[in-house]
Amino acid sequence: MEHTEQPIQTILLENGLTLELVDYSRRVAGDRWNVRVKAAIGISVEDVLNRTDQRHWKEEIENVLGKQVVFEKEMIRNFIDEREKQTVVDQLCRSFLENAMIYLSRQHFAERFLFKQYRETLERKRIENLLKKGVSRGDPSE
Predict the structure, then answer these.
(1) What does the pLDDT look like over 29-46, one tens digit per residue?
(2) Which end of the chain is flanked by fewer CB atoms within 10 Å, N or C?
(3) Could you state, in order of their start, the residue ranges of all structural domains in the chain?
(4) Measuring CA to CA, how many Å separate 63 from each of 17, 53, 57, 60, 117?
(5) Computed from CA positions of residues 58, 64, 67, 71, in that sequence, does the dihedral angle turn out positive or negative?
């Protein structure tokens, strides 16, 4: 299977973040492609907390999430004719940018995304711990 990883575009957003669009398409059969375009924004925990005057959260959040979180959106189209591949890639990018730029460019996007990831990760870990405790105690619902 032929696989590509081609940078498409890098965009500096109004809020100082950098959006990267990358083509991860791969050939699936003959002249047919699985078209995959990924949009990603790397967000530094330290940068966000320094800008928001919430440095006191730095150690706790980095312990849970690491030093960086990544916003990712993957757009996929299956079984695309090779002659239409580039057109589909362009359409996916254009559609994503038309629909997401205002949201991603907002002044508080990074802060809100960071704290959302933090809350969701804590909740996921809490549930995993509850499930482990239930299994280790011989929970009858197994």
Answers:
(1) 999 999 999 999 999 999
(2) C
(3) 6-136
(4) 23, 19, 10, 5, 13
(5) negative
